[in-house]
Amino acid sequence: MRVARAHTRLLVATLTALIVAACGLDLGGVRDELEAAEATWRAQQPTQYVIEYERRCLCSNAGQFIARVEGGSVVAVDPGTGIGGAEELPFAFTVERLFDTIRSAIDRESDAIEVEYDAVLGYPTRILIDADAGADDDELRVIAALRTDG
Prior knowledge:
The N and C termini lie far apart (71 Å). With 150 residues, this protein is an alpha+beta fold. Helix content is 38%, strand content 30%. It has a 6-stranded antiparallel sheet. The radius of gyration is 19 Å and the shape is globular. Helix 2 runs antiparallel to helix 4. It contains 4 helices and 6 strands; from the N terminus they run H-H-E-E-E-H-H-E-E-E. The N terminus is likely disordered.
Protein backbone atom coordinates (compact mmCIF):
# COMPACT_ATOMS: atom_id res chain seq x y z
CA MET A 1 0.00 0.00 0.00
CA ARG A 2 2.87 2.39 0.78
CA VAL A 3 4.39 1.80 -2.64
CA ALA A 4 1.06 2.58 -4.31
CA ARG A 5 0.76 5.85 -2.35
CA ALA A 6 4.33 6.81 -3.19
CA HIS A 7 3.66 6.20 -6.89
CA THR A 8 0.43 8.17 -6.68
CA ARG A 9 2.22 11.12 -5.03
CA LEU A 10 4.95 10.99 -7.65
CA LEU A 11 2.37 10.91 -10.45
CA VAL A 12 0.47 13.85 -8.96
CA ALA A 13 3.68 15.86 -8.51
CA THR A 14 4.76 15.11 -12.08
CA LEU A 15 1.37 16.06 -13.54
CA THR A 16 1.34 19.25 -11.47
CA ALA A 17 4.81 20.17 -12.74
CA LEU A 18 3.74 19.55 -16.34
CA ILE A 19 0.61 21.68 -15.95
CA VAL A 20 2.60 24.53 -14.38
CA ALA A 21 5.23 24.28 -17.12
CA ALA A 22 2.57 24.36 -19.82
CA CYS A 23 0.74 27.32 -18.31
CA GLY A 24 3.60 29.00 -16.49
CA LEU A 25 4.78 31.78 -18.80
CA ASP A 26 2.61 34.88 -18.78
CA LEU A 27 3.30 36.17 -22.29
CA GLY A 28 0.93 39.08 -21.73
CA GLY A 29 2.95 40.21 -18.72
CA VAL A 30 6.22 39.85 -20.65
CA ARG A 31 4.72 41.91 -23.50
CA ASP A 32 3.48 44.60 -21.06
CA GLU A 33 6.96 44.89 -19.53
CA LEU A 34 8.48 45.12 -23.01
CA GLU A 35 6.08 47.88 -24.07
CA ALA A 36 6.73 49.87 -20.88
CA ALA A 37 10.50 49.54 -21.33
CA GLU A 38 10.25 50.61 -24.98
CA ALA A 39 8.25 53.70 -23.97
CA THR A 40 10.91 54.57 -21.39
CA TRP A 41 13.63 54.10 -23.99
CA ARG A 42 11.86 56.21 -26.64
CA ALA A 43 11.35 59.04 -24.14
CA GLN A 44 15.09 59.26 -23.35
CA GLN A 45 16.79 57.57 -26.29
CA PRO A 46 20.24 59.03 -26.98
CA THR A 47 21.09 59.81 -30.61
CA GLN A 48 24.36 57.94 -30.22
CA TYR A 49 25.60 55.36 -27.77
CA VAL A 50 27.95 52.46 -27.31
CA ILE A 51 26.45 49.10 -26.44
CA GLU A 52 28.63 46.39 -24.98
CA TYR A 53 27.02 42.98 -25.15
CA GLU A 54 27.71 39.32 -24.83
CA ARG A 55 25.71 36.87 -26.92
CA ARG A 56 25.68 33.30 -25.59
CA CYS A 57 24.24 30.64 -27.81
CA LEU A 58 25.25 27.67 -29.91
CA CYS A 59 25.54 29.89 -32.96
CA SER A 60 28.28 31.21 -35.20
CA ASN A 61 28.02 34.76 -33.85
CA ALA A 62 28.41 34.15 -30.12
CA GLY A 63 30.87 36.27 -28.18
CA GLN A 64 31.45 39.68 -26.68
CA PHE A 65 31.10 42.80 -28.79
CA ILE A 66 31.17 46.57 -28.53
CA ALA A 67 29.00 48.37 -31.08
CA ARG A 68 28.82 52.09 -31.73
CA VAL A 69 25.30 53.18 -32.67
CA GLU A 70 24.42 56.50 -34.31
CA GLY A 71 20.90 57.44 -35.34
CA GLY A 72 19.68 53.90 -34.61
CA SER A 73 22.25 52.21 -36.90
CA VAL A 74 25.40 50.33 -36.01
CA VAL A 75 28.36 52.22 -37.48
CA ALA A 76 31.21 50.17 -36.00
CA VAL A 77 31.76 46.93 -34.10
CA ASP A 78 34.74 45.94 -31.99
CA PRO A 79 34.81 42.15 -31.99
CA GLY A 80 36.04 41.64 -28.43
CA THR A 81 36.00 37.83 -28.20
CA GLY A 82 33.54 37.47 -31.08
CA ILE A 83 33.90 36.65 -34.76
CA GLY A 84 35.11 40.04 -35.96
CA GLY A 85 33.90 43.55 -36.66
CA ALA A 86 32.90 43.33 -40.33
CA GLU A 87 31.31 39.89 -39.93
CA GLU A 88 29.33 40.97 -36.86
CA LEU A 89 27.94 44.19 -38.35
CA PRO A 90 24.73 42.62 -39.79
CA PHE A 91 24.09 40.82 -36.49
CA ALA A 92 25.14 43.58 -34.09
CA PHE A 93 22.61 44.55 -31.48
CA THR A 94 21.14 47.98 -31.09
CA VAL A 95 18.67 48.56 -28.29
CA GLU A 96 15.89 48.34 -30.89
CA ARG A 97 17.20 44.96 -32.07
CA LEU A 98 17.20 43.73 -28.48
CA PHE A 99 13.56 44.79 -28.18
CA ASP A 100 12.81 43.04 -31.51
CA THR A 101 14.47 39.85 -30.24
CA ILE A 102 12.25 39.84 -27.17
CA ARG A 103 9.11 40.61 -29.22
CA SER A 104 9.93 37.78 -31.62
CA ALA A 105 10.27 35.34 -28.72
CA ILE A 106 6.87 36.45 -27.41
CA ASP A 107 5.28 36.10 -30.85
CA ARG A 108 6.77 32.59 -31.22
CA GLU A 109 5.40 31.74 -27.75
CA SER A 110 8.81 30.66 -26.48
CA ASP A 111 8.74 28.42 -23.43
CA ALA A 112 10.93 30.74 -21.33
CA ILE A 113 11.56 34.46 -21.60
CA GLU A 114 13.37 36.31 -18.82
CA VAL A 115 14.30 39.96 -19.24
CA GLU A 116 15.75 42.61 -16.96
CA TYR A 117 15.57 46.26 -18.00
CA ASP A 118 17.65 49.28 -17.04
CA ALA A 119 15.64 51.29 -14.50
CA VAL A 120 16.57 54.67 -16.00
CA LEU A 121 16.77 54.20 -19.79
CA GLY A 122 14.58 51.10 -20.18
CA TYR A 123 16.91 49.09 -22.43
CA PRO A 124 17.25 45.32 -21.82
CA THR A 125 20.28 44.50 -19.68
CA ARG A 126 19.75 40.75 -19.53
CA ILE A 127 17.78 38.47 -21.82
CA LEU A 128 17.26 34.72 -21.60
CA ILE A 129 15.12 33.03 -24.23
CA ASP A 130 14.45 29.30 -24.44
CA ALA A 131 12.24 28.69 -27.44
CA ASP A 132 11.61 25.04 -26.58
CA ALA A 133 12.29 23.83 -23.04
CA GLY A 134 12.33 20.24 -24.31
CA ALA A 135 15.11 20.92 -26.83
CA ASP A 136 18.76 21.27 -26.03
CA ASP A 137 20.92 24.04 -27.39
CA ASP A 138 18.25 26.50 -28.54
CA GLU A 139 18.74 29.01 -25.73
CA LEU A 140 19.85 32.60 -26.29
CA ARG A 141 21.39 34.69 -23.54
CA VAL A 142 22.34 38.32 -23.97
CA ILE A 143 23.90 40.62 -21.38
CA ALA A 144 24.10 44.29 -22.40
CA ALA A 145 25.43 47.54 -20.98
CA LEU A 146 25.12 50.98 -22.51
CA ARG A 147 27.40 54.02 -22.52
CA THR A 148 26.26 57.37 -23.83
CA ASP A 149 29.61 59.10 -23.36
CA GLY A 150 31.35 57.67 -26.44
